[in-house]
Amino acid sequence: MPLDWGDSGGETIKLALARRKATDPGARIGSLVVNPGGPGGSGVQTVVQNRMRFSPEITSRFDIVGFDPRGVGGSHPIRCSRELASQAPDPFLKNQAEFERLLSHNQRYKKDCRARTGPLFDHVDTVSVARDLDAMREALGDDKLSFYGISYGTLMGQIYAELFPRNVRALALDSNMDHSLGTRAFLDTQAWTTQDSFDEFVKWCGKTTSCALHGKNIRTFWANLLARAERGELHYPGEPDVPLTKLLLIYEATGGSFGPTWADLADFLVAADSGSGKARSMLKPLPKQEEIKDATQVFCLDYLLPIRNYREYAAHLKSSRKIAPDMLAGPEALATTAACLGQQAPIPNPQHRLKVSGPKLLVANALHDPATGYNWAVSTAKQLGAAGRLFTYEGWGHRIYDHGECAVNGIDRYLVALKLPAKGARCPAVPPSASKKSAYEPPPGPVPGLPGWVRS
């Protein structure tokens, strides 16, 4: 691919792809290109490890093709100093001096990442990824693109539909980004959806006897944990040398709602409180090494979220705390916003309301999604107007595809037969299991805004 799509005759980069061929070649429709989100998720590993768990209806009719977007995984990844990454200030800033230290760190860190990565560092925006997608479509021999994206992958699909509406066959967007939001709206909506998922965890634990926190005042227990984390008194269960900070604790609570894996989350919180034993966690630190892969720059080139000083920053934190009294903020939103502070305008893919005409996009979302809130899907569907169809799963988690037959059949029918669900279609919630197995887990990989940590 051209490193810079504005200079198609210049330097090129290679993209990594993986293909799992259709099991029934005689019924094959074409390729289904997939992306697991992030930014930073590897579509290659998603296909190699068969993590999407598509139905036989999909795997028999499509070649499943995963790709690592530019700057990610096997596609010329962004590389940065692990030592510098470990010096990133905690985003729960307390004064102007800490705000200025954050800006200074961001400048040093980006300079280092750019030097290690090369000129691609400034060309990993999702507009460039959408152009890569169209080149991939042509290389795969498909007249039109069939695409299934989760989370940040939905932004790729949305932008592709804007740029190449005539090349769209089907775009199934599961757990949607909203690319129209400014700083306050982005942080507030993330705080809301994070608090909503925590509220749902509390309800579940209150009526489920197998929950390790059943019978306790969970909000008081949680508040005490947050206070201890802020005082530096907690460590990861079974990892006495790995501090469990307030931000990491909120990340873990949010991650427990992805599946949801609420039984695992309750066990983790009990183990963190006691300081003994082990429990399954959503995050783990990368092994000690000189360089890390960090895809946060992708977000910084897609979302310009300026904050001029600590006074404005504190006002955003206050607003988030009011909306999310237990969770305080959407952790990934806060971390990525902090990591991108100092980003200069203009960026190659600034926020805007979608303008799509022609193709029909499926906009699917859970009512209680901890990462891409239902309000984002509603907003995206409204922006698309006649070009979008909202498909609601009335339950929990991040990604609706494997949450019951209704959700699977609705998406399958669209991808195979191009039949959209009826207007206002909703799928009933599938009660979360008390077992330790989740319906969906985010793909292993770097955590945006949290360099040096990966989802386990």
User: Alpha-carbon distance between the termini?
Assistant: 31 Å
- Looking at CATH, the homologous superfamily of one domain is Alpha/Beta hydrolase fold, catalytic domain
Q: What is the share of helical residues?
A: 25-40%
- Mind telling me the C-alpha Rg? 21 Å
Highest-level CATH class of one domain: Alpha Beta
Strand order of the largest sheet: 1-3-2-5-6-11-12-13
Compressed to H and E, one letter per element, the order equals: EEHHEEHHHEHEHHEEHHEEHHHEHEHEEE
Average pLDDT, rounded to a whole number, is: 94
Question: What's the overall geometry?
Answer: globular
State the helix count: 15
Largest sheet: 8 strands, mixed
GO molecular function, one term: hydrolase activity
Pfam families: Abhydrolase_1, Abhydrolase_4
Organism: Nonomuraea mesophila
Keywords: Hydrolase, Signal
Could you outline the blueprint of secondary structure elements for this entry?
Layout: E1 17-20, E2 30-35, H1 43-48, H2 56-61, E3 62-67, E4 79-81, H3 82-85, H4 96-117, H5 126-139, E5 145-151, H6 152-163, E6 168-176, H7 183-207, H8 218-230, E7 235-236, E8 239-243, H9 246-255, H10 262-274, E9 283-285, E10 291-293, H11 296-302, H12 310-323, H13 331-340, E11 361-368, H14 374-384, E12 388-396, H15 405-417, E13 426-427, E14 445-446, E15 453-455
Parallel strand pairs: 2-3, 2-5, 5-6, 6-11, 11-12, 12-13
Antiparallel strand pairs: 1-3, 4-10, 7-8, 9-15, 14-15
Helix pairs in contact: 5-6, 7-12, 7-13, 11-13
